[in-house]
Amino acid sequence: MRRLATALLGAAFAAAVPAAEAPRRIVSLVPSLTETVCALGACGRLVGTDRHSNWPPAVQALPKLGGLDDAQIERIVALRPDLVLVSPSARVAPRLEALGVPVLVVQVDTVDEMRRATATLAQRLGDAAAGERLWHDVEARVAAAAARVPASMRGRRVYFEVAPTPHAAGPTSFVGELLARLGLGNVVPAALGPFPQLNPEFVLRAQPDVVIAAADALAEMPARPGWGALAALREGRTCGFAPAVIDVVVRPGPRLGEAAEHLADCAAAIARGPAPEGR
Predict the structure, then answer these.
(1) Residue 113: inside a domain, yes or no?
(2) Whole domain around residue 265: which residue ranges?
């Protein structure tokens, strides 16, 4: 019965939505694409998002429709979207397409893919110029942030932890590309991929000059077996980002310029060194 109801919803939906028109009812199942739609001035067209979309604050009031592996098909169809944004790894895309729901699959693992995604979304929304303006602003902020990184930090090798398993941001990820744009190095070889899971021993052997992670993960690192030997931890060459900031830095989207600013601030703080006692 549920399958029949879903099929009927899909048939009615497909008959009602003209494919050539710019979408007016959008479901985004990717946080970075949710942010991009809003940054392009179309936040009001969103009718639902995945559970992880939390910026800008207005999207938190929208229906939450699951995540990468558990998107709620019937609820999505019931919202009558004329465009659903998904990532290539989303299992939901073929099922929605079979119901006649327009789906746009968008890859956003690298900076260049982010640029193309911005242009594609802007065009689909009917305002290609908005995409050009947005990306121009992103590039300007990244360039300004790079200019603020102290010369003493250039080439410093960074271990950027994206999950305490530990998974790290490699040089081929958008995070790694951003670090490189700021003149920073990376302890992870490109051959390991964008976000590899590392053997903890690898990090110990690499002895990164700088460690960056979420604040709670950074706080527990010294208790990991052997990690007390990391000079960067002992000497305070670290940056622990609060949850709101780590969201910005590890989410590929229109806040890339802001992410660059946070990383530049991190580099500048490490270059200054710890504050003297009593200050």
Answers:
(1) no
(2) 152-272
